[in-house]
Design brief:
alpha+beta, five-stranded mixed beta sheet, Heat Shock Protein 90
């Protein structure tokens, strides 16, 4: 009789222990899920901050250029306001998107260069060489603007001669390669990264981790080149797919 009672107690203790272990595991998974969600939200907030940090500087330069044309060339000022309005509308439309198709990025850059041409008296030439199959590739939203702005600042703004900026993009297997090149004097050895390039580097790290590469170098002849390597991913109307998914569909 005593043994039966003992086994009953042991069995009950085992059930209670199992229940406690199950509850502990459930609570642990719940806490881990909440922590992961908080980390994701904090990551998104940081990415948003990195992206929007560039806007005030860009807007200040654009408005300053428009102001300079208001009296001497009202027609150009109105045209610039229209282009600036297009840029702002695109920024608002994609304010919550961390990525967008490369084609939209290029549209944004075209408007941006139009404003810069007015600022530098048409001393800027933009050349794009983008393979058709990467137009729908996803890139971090507004990622090209700071790269092109850097090329303008160090390539065109630093001299009195016309400058050329080239954007190239192509796919190599599951990797998207994007380069932004200028024909200016290049970067000084001690120049370091400004806000735009530093933010670009951090955004890539947070979005893609080790799967992204970022490099800026001076070219042998003259000018500087920024290279980006990203995972090749495309977006369709209903969902984001990886390159492997696309080949398998």
């Amino acid at each position: 009789m005593a043994s039966i009672v003992l086994w009953a107690i042991v069995g009950a203790a085992g059930v209670l222990a199992a229940a406690a272990a199950f509850k502990y595991r459930a609570d642990l998974e719940d806490r881990q899920q909440r922590i992961a969600e908080l980390e994701r939200l904090l990551g998104d907030a940081r990415l948003d901050a990195l992206r929007t940090q560039l806007h005030p500087h860009f807007l200040f330069n654009a408005l300053n250029t428009i102001s300079a044309h208001v009296e001497r060339d009202p027609r150009t000022a109105r045209w610039m306001l229209d282009r600036l309005g297009t840029l702002l509308r695109m920024s608002l439309e994609h304010a919550r998107e961390q990525e967008m198709p490369l084609e939209r990025e290029l549209t944004f850059i075209t408007c941006y260069i139009d404003l810069q041409k007015a600022r530098f008296d048409d001393r800027i030439a933009l050349v794009t060489d983008v393979a058709p199959d990467v137009m729908t590739a996803l890139v971090p939203s507004l990622i090209l603007q700071p790269l092109v702005e850097n090329a303008v600042r160090h390539g065109i703004a630093s001299g009195d001669t016309p400058g050329r900026i080239e954007i190239h993009a192509h796919r190599d297997a599951n990797t998207l390669h994007v380069t932004v090149t200028d024909d200016g004097p290049g970067l000084h050895a001690d120049a370091g990264f400004g806000v735009g390039l530093s933010n670009t580097q951090e955004r890539l790290q947070r979005l893609y981790g080790k799967h992204a590469e970022f490099a800026i170098t001076n070219l042998a002849q003259k000018g500087a080149q920024v290279k980006l390597q990203l995972p090749f991913r495309v977006a369709d109307a209903t969902r984001t797919r990886t390159a492997d998914d696309s080949r398998g569909s």
